[in-house]
Amino acid sequence: MAVIESCVYVDGELMAPALLPTLRAKSRLAFASAKYFPTFDIGYTHIYRITAWGLSCDKAERRAKRKVGRFYRKLNQVEGFSTITLDKREDYVPSNQNYSVTYDIVYVIERTGSRTQRPDAPYPEYQHDLQKLTFTPETAAVLTRR
Q1: Based on the number of CB atoms within 10 Å of its own CB, is 1 exposed (0-12), middle (13-18) or buried (19 or more)?
Q2: Neighbouring-strand partners of residue 12
C-alpha cells in the first residue's frame, strides 16, 4: 500500500519503523492511488489499510476478517514477508448508521538473498491482480522523490 522506509536493523534485529515516516505513509493512504493494493519492495517496511463496513459491528468484523485473511493468504507466499504490527479500530458512523472495522498492517519484505525472491512477481496471481488496477501501486520510488 504505502511504503514507510527502508528496513532498519540494530544488532541484527529488525526495528519497527520510526514514527514520522509512519505518519507520512499513513497520510498518503488518503489518496486513491495508494489504496487497495499491497506493495512488495524488498528491503522496505510498508503499511496496508483494510476497512470494512456493516449494519452491525459483527457484520463489519466478519467482512474485515475475510479481507485480512485474503491479504495474508497472498502475502504468506512472498519470500521475506513478516508482520510488524497489526492495529484494529472499530467505529460507529452516525451519518449512515453503519459500523466500520479498520486494520492497519505494518509489514516488511526482508531481503533474503535467495535467487527466488522476485519483486516483480511475488506470488503466482500477482500479474492478474495488477491488471485489475486502473493505477500503479505506490512503490519505494515515492520515497526517492521526496
Answers
A1: buried
A2: none
**pTM listed for this prediction:** 0.81
Helical ranges in 11-125 per DSSP H: 19-28, 57-75
C-alpha cell at 4: 514507510
* Closest to 3 (Cα-Cα) out of 50, 33, 51, 38: 38
Sole residue written with cell 513478516: 82
Convert the pLDDT of each residue in 54-89 to its tens digit: 999 999 999 999 999 998 998 888 888 999 999 999
pLDDT at 146 over 70: no
- Angle among Cα 2, 107, 87 to the nearest 5 degrees reads 90
Helix (H) or strand (E) holding 87: strand 81-93
Question: Residues 34, 2: contact at Cβ < 8 Å?
Answer: yes
Q: Residue 62: exposed, middle, or buried by beta-carbon count in 10 A (0-12, 13-18, 19+)?
A: middle
Query: CA torsion, points 61, 64, 72, 12, in degrees to nearest 10?
Result: -80
Do 35 and 29 form a contact (C-beta atoms < 8 A)?
Answer: yes
SS3 143: helix
